[in-house]
Amino acid sequence: MSERPDPGAAVIDVDRLVVRFRPRSGADVLAVRDATFTVKSGEILCLVGPSGCGKSTALNAIAGLLASDEHIQIEVAGSINVFGAPLRKQDRRLGYMFQQDTLLPWRTALQNVELPLTFQGRNDGHGRPMELLRLAGLAAFAHRYPKELSGGMRKRIQLVQVLAHDPEILLMDEPFGALDAQTKTIMQNEFLHVWDRDRKTIVFVTHDLNEAILLGDRIICMTARPGGIKAEFPVPIERPRSTETILNHPAYPRLFSELWNALREEADKAMRTAPGTGGV
Amino acid sequence: MTVSAIPVTRYRVPSRGLQVLIHVALIGAFAFLWQAVVDAGVLKAIIFGRPTGVLAYLGELLTDPATAGAIGVTFAEVAMGLGLGALSGVGMGVVLSRSSVLRANLDPVFLALYTLPRIALIPLFMVWFGLGMPSKVAAVFIHGFVIFLLGTYATVDSVDRILIRNLWMLGASRWHVLRHVYIPWASTHMFTSFRQALGLGIGTAVVAELIGSFEGVGYEIGLTLAAFDMNGTFAWVLLIASLSVFLDRSGTELEHRLLRWR
What we know:
- The structure holds two protein chains of two kinds.
- By secondary structure, chain A is of the alpha/beta class.
- Chain A has a domain of 171 residues: Rossmann fold.
- Chain A contains eight helices and ten strands.
- By secondary structure, chain B is an all-alpha fold.
- In chain B, 81% of the residues lie in helices and 0% in strands.
- In chain B, 31% of the residues are buried.
- In chain B, helix 7 packs antiparallel against helix 9, helix 9 runs parallel beside helix 10 and helix 9 runs antiparallel to helix 11.
- The interface between A and B is medium-sized, with 27 and 21 residues.
């Protein structure tokens, strides 16, 4: 593991980020406008905003996932610095967890977890992937194929896969958004537990305010498209947290209503303009 | 208070043994009817043959070493045609799906080839390649090429992009993506293409041999037809049909073994 910057130092610096989509057919879309924010080492930063506001686009810009192809041209302006240097392609220090199922269906749970090590030439067969699965309580499912596992189980394995990748910054795009409410709550609490072990830097995109309050050290609310920064809220709830502790915390109702008011204004605006494309 | 039992209808799937028994009984009944009608003189034996005659001919075929030779020729044509067709179809499909310009220009040609009744090209191949095996290989090849080309398009177009994005974020190279996403994904489509192409390929080879050749199953069928020996025709058709079904089933079995993850 490489040396870590001081806790609290800015590890991602997004400065006046502008993202414009120019599809080959159809109108241009300005997805992100003048977004400026930093992410500090070891914190969980949550990005919330109305649907289609460009929060996923901002995350993808940090991940280096915005690439033009024959259908769409993507223009990115402004600057993104990661650990004080401009963004590199396929930076190993960045990890990404998608909302969708991303396990390869033709590989078992264990084989999926081994992939990042194989790609980095670190798969020495010393059982690190198995150990990670065991830590997550998934050892019994190591040799199952994804189709044999429940949605929650697949999500856990996805998390273990990205832990095997071992990035210093983990970008998460509504990772639990497709799960049912119960499974989602369980996953959020498990995730907090895992995060607490080594407190990696996390940027977490969600539209679920409860989720943002439960997980985040800070919450940034974005404006309706084109997405800019509307307001920033620190979460004054001490860790360790869990679903029960935050719901009973005195600071919770006030923070929730402040967040909701900020979000609702923007959601209203978003509803009065063109329908969002979402998720690009 | 009484609770009346709700009658539950049980749908029982017949056991495998019973299924086989039913099939045999059906075929037996059909053969019996056929035999009776021909024996009674309602249908002419010289035009319709008769089951006992077909069985006798089949018995002769199975003991004659020349039978394996004829089957070998036909299957060699199918194997070569499909092998070349798969190689070039998949290769062309991969190249074209990488270049939208090439694809836009060449697709109309391939689509024309797809809609064209390809069997009509067989006489042309005979003019070009003669009456021997090469013209049959060419006829099978055309089918294989088109089916595998379209199968490859379907594969490349239907790959889930999110899988590739995830692997890319995990540090995968282009080779890794090909090795871990495209090839496993393609294998499922290739089995489907293979089964389609096999059925068409065998049919095409036999028809091509019927049109003009001096060896192979189609040639043998042609001989029995020329001699007005309907029992022989039926025997050969039965033989090649059972072999095709056997190959198709083996392919399906292999698919289930290899693609356990589905």
